[in-house]
Request: fold
Amino acid sequence: MKSISFYLILSAGCLLLSTVSCRKSDKEATREDAPTIYVANPVVDSIVLHKTYPGLLGASDNATVVGRVNGTILSKNYESGGYVDKGQVLFTIESTKYRDAVQQAQAALSTAKSQYDYASRNYQALSEALKSDAVSQIEVIQAKATMEQAEASVKNAEAALSQANLNLSHCTVRAPIAGYVSSNVPNVGEYISGEGSPVTLCKIYDNTRMTATFNIEDAQYEQMIGQNGGMGHDLYRNVPIKFNQPLPHSYTADLTYQSPSINSSTGTLQLKGSIKNIDNELKDGMYITVELPYGVNPKAILVRDASIGTDQLGKYVYVVNDSNKVVYTPIKTGELYQDTLRVVNEGLKPGDRYVTEALLTVRNGMTVNPQLTK
Reply:
């Protein structure tokens, strides 16, 4: 009986050890089967905070080239879309009518000067004769009036000649500024009537520097003045400018103008900034987004923007807890930073481990094997 009892006890012990061993193996197997998931800690950094505003680009200087005379356009002397220098001839307009007018004005001026010379000498002669009572006082007065009329005629003739020369100069249309020129509106050979109302021929845009124009809320302006001291602050020297599609170069604007008053109907203030146009990439009329700085967050929490999911409840990330289980974590986000990082205002702490990739393969409560990445 003792022998049988011994064997029963021994068998029970082996069975217990076997059970414990199996449970241990099952746990180890569970750990080994857990998928490897890459995680990262949020970055904590001091960043400049921005608020975005839509805006519009305009050339720093532009000019509308017009025809101011009547006549047929004889030539166009530039390539549409090309660069022209200040003073360069752009168009020539038929000038026969205006050359004749100049000659007539010159002749009229010569006649007026001759009449004035005669009237002046006659007045001087009669003035001398009056001293010896050879002529009457009334004759001298009349001679003086004639001389003054002749002098006025000379001035009128000079003005007419100046106007005739000006009209003739308008037959040769020159670039008022340097810049890139648009295509011509009327074609060569067309007749224009520019005397009554100037006719637009083309436009020139000086794109060396561009002006970004946008509007901000009056409350945002008050914050600029109250917290940052206004446009003179260094924050407003290199304001980032973004475009619908990325360009080969990045651009910033220096704020140079603020409207002297708030628009009472919209409650906004207009601001303008100057942008250096690299390689003539920027064009007049382009739509932009202005990232206006409004403060500094010395301890901003940043995560990879690609790691953030969106559902009906809003934004979220997957966090791996101390038990290596995935936890669905709602967050509140802020602005994009350096194109890849997103500011998290609520929901994460600096030491949390958030899932950086394979978001579609993880689920809430799932056990994972987290691998920390930088």
Remarks:
- Helices lie at 2-33, 96-131, 137-169, 218-228.
- The CA atoms of residues 155 and 221 lie 57 Å apart.
